[in-house]
Amino acid sequence: MKAFFSPTLLACILTSFSANAQGLLSAGPMNGRTEMREVAIWVQTIQSCEVGIEYWPIDQPSKVNQSSLVTTNPETAYTAILIAGEVSPGKEYAYKILLDSAPTGRIYHFKTQPNWLTAFERPTVKFATGSCTFINDSLYDYPGKSYGSNYQIFDNILSQKPDFMLWLGDNLYLRNADWTSKSGILKRYEHFRSTAELQNLWSGTHHYAIWDDHDYGPNDANGSFGLKHASLEAFKAFWANPYYGIQEGASGITSSFSYADLDFFLLDNRWYRTDPNLNATDEQVFGKEQIEWLIQNLKFSKAPFKFVATGGQILNDEKVYETYANYEEERAYLLSRIVEEGIKGVFFLTGDRHHTELSRFERNGIVLYDLTVSPLTSGAHANVKENNTLRVEGTLIETQNFAVVTVSGKAKERILEMAVLDSDGKLLWKREIAEGK
Prior knowledge:
Layout: H1 7-23, E1 25-34, E2 39-45, E3 50-57, E4 65-66, E5 70-71, E6 79-84, E7 92-99, E8 102-103, E9 108-111, E10 125-130, H2 153-158, E11 164-168, H3 182-193, H4 199-204, E12 206-210, H5 228-238, E13 255-259, E14 262-266, H6 288-300, E15 306-310, H7 328-340, E16 346-350, E17 357-363, E18 366-372, E19 401-408, E20 415-422, E21 427-434
Parallel strand pairs: 10-11, 11-12, 14-15, 15-16, 16-18
Antiparallel strand pairs: 1-2, 2-6, 3-4, 3-5, 3-7, 7-8, 7-9, 10-19, 13-14, 17-18, 19-20, 20-21
């Protein structure tokens, strides 16, 4: 007998398949790195299944491509990074998640980078940034008042329509029940990534990240942390940066990427760190190999602004908590190398401190900036009385906040604008820096 399905029944069947597929999705999707000819999409499923995406230019809906399929597994908490490799520069694409060959119902979007060298005008680039995200979890938190609050900040970040978000470490807080096992570390990442208030941000823009102590191990953890490799594997499983380590086979999260005419260098301030209280002469945060990698890349870069992201403050000259000033010799070496090489346009992006401030350093005509942005949802430190002699007056913020950095203008005349906003999206302060200044 020939089977017959009415249009209504067929629509119901397809809707049921789509709903079942959506039910296999645990978190995401998250738009990861974006290039001119490749985009990475991250997803997590609730069990092992085959995942992929089908995607198409929004102005050519019939031109559908499909990524390679990946089977999720428990070793990486059922996560997958899917590659859209049939894309063109400067275009917006729509996509659906495929779970065990069934498409989910919801349509998401990503954008590729513009091919700015083929244009007469330099593109305007806008990105959001911040650090210290505490998501409450009563079963594992200290008793008493919750440490995390004001999750509406994530939708307010998205409302600024950034091209991407750069997470500056302490993106989640490993608890004492987490950092003693690989399973615990993965569970904390899963709790963070599946937070309902973050879902719009994950799929609404692209994301890059570094880590600091709280998403690496215990508080103030250094290179001696025994489960550092488990933390690294978790970081790789849950973020979609371009690569990890200063060279093939190297460890740590060091990475770099470009967006239009801007260059970004993502430093690892935990993997190579030593304890500053040890009776040793080789105290370090980054290590010489990573610093030389950075200096060579900065020297090679032609970008008007060269952003260096790392978890802890670089320019604050007060020796408090984990500021780089506690590692006096290595800090002096890094800053002197930048000055000696005459590298202009270096702009540090840092977190960790639970307050926000802009620091400025100048020597022999070379000006360096350090924008510290903290916290996003963690507790803020009030009444900070540090004597940071390099702090730019009027930039200290002691409440939850995020920053939006916009670079615009003609070639050789680019302008960097910093805007710091509170959890509700209210402007707290704004500053501008001209290229070469």
